[in-house]
Design a protein that fits this description.
It is built from ten helices and eight strands. The protein has 273 residues and is of the alpha/beta class. The protein has a single domain, classed as TIM Barrel, CATH 3.20.20.70.
Length: 273
């Protein structure tokens, strides 16, 4: 496991807690709008030039020095659950006395099951990228290798064709099966959790938010979320550079997305505005 960076204190990452945020390197998705490209594509980015890489020895020494100042540690990425040694890493954090928040794309139900059984997690933040029919388009796994030569519009047109191919459908069904299993595991665990969706123009609109709402409601998980966060898209330092040319939605538009979800969830937040 590699640590790509550390935010020593955050008052907003974990609702209601003063927490440190640790960034783990590596991800199994390639969302073109990702704003941590240095954690995802390590061959194209010098991680140490963007985020100060830190050893586990230094990381845990830092936590021990903040034992009475911090309440928790938010573990994010990348995608933390792709690391086989994540349980051991979280166990060390818990032994120092900190609560743990895990940010995840929910693609690894087996790891989540293990972490829950070992009582390693106190709060989940689950990224919901899109509705089921658009997941491959959103996580960028098909057009990612050619992202620098495509415009967002061309990329979306290409993905619409790929989405209907048998290979794409099989792959998407496998991803969705894992995500749905993870969501079931999380909501049955009794551990508080929130959903987050980044409002990327061209990917998320009113129809897509309604599809997401219907999907999560049918799974029986939407109303059990503590928070649903609509996150503003920021066209800066994205994995696919062409997304840096996209104009973000207005605050009013984000409010509209929030209103679609509002009646189904205890609390809806708009973040990043």
């Amino acid at each position: 496991m590699q640590i790509g960076g550390l935010q020593k204190v955050s008052l907003i990452d974990w609702p209601g807690k003063i927490a440190a945020v640790v960034f783990l390197i590596g991800c199994n998705f390639r969302c073109p709008f990702c704003q941590n490209p240095e954690l995802v594509e390590t061959k194209q980015y010098s991680v140490s030039a963007i985020l100060p890489r830190i050893s586990q020895i230094d990381f845990f020494a830092f936590l021990e020095s903040r034992e009475k100042l911090l309440e928790g540690v938010s573990v994010t990425g990348g995608e933390p659950t792709i690391n086989p040694d994540l349980p051991e890493f979280l166990e060390k954090i818990k032994k120092i006395g900190f609560s743990v928040k895990l940010d995840t794309n929910a693609s690894n139900p087996k790891m989540l099951e293990e972490l829950i059984s070992k009582k390693m997690i106190d709060y989940f933040a689950v990224d919901i990228k899109a509705s089921p029919k658009n997941y491959l388009k959103t996580i960028g796994l098909f057009y990612y290798p050619e992202r620098s030569r495509r415009s967002p519009a061309n990329a979306r047109n290409s993905l619409n064709k790929l989405r209907d191919s048998s290979v794409a459908l099989l792959f998407q069904n496998d991803i969705l099966k894992n995500i749905e299993k993870s969501l079931d595991i999380i909501q049955k665990s009794g551990i508080p959790f929130e959903f987050r969706t980044t409002a990327v123009p061209g990917i998320i609109d009113e129809k897509e938010m309604n599809r997401i709402k219907k999907w999560l409601k049918n799974l029986g998980v939407l109303e059990k979320a503590k928070i649903y966060a609509i996150q503003q898209f920021r066209p800066e330092k994205t994995l696919d550079k062409s997304f840096e040319k996209i104009k973000p939605y207005s605050n009013e538009k984000l409010e509209g997305f929030a209103n679609i979800i509002k009646l189904e969830v205890k609390r809806v937040e708009i973040r990043g505005i």
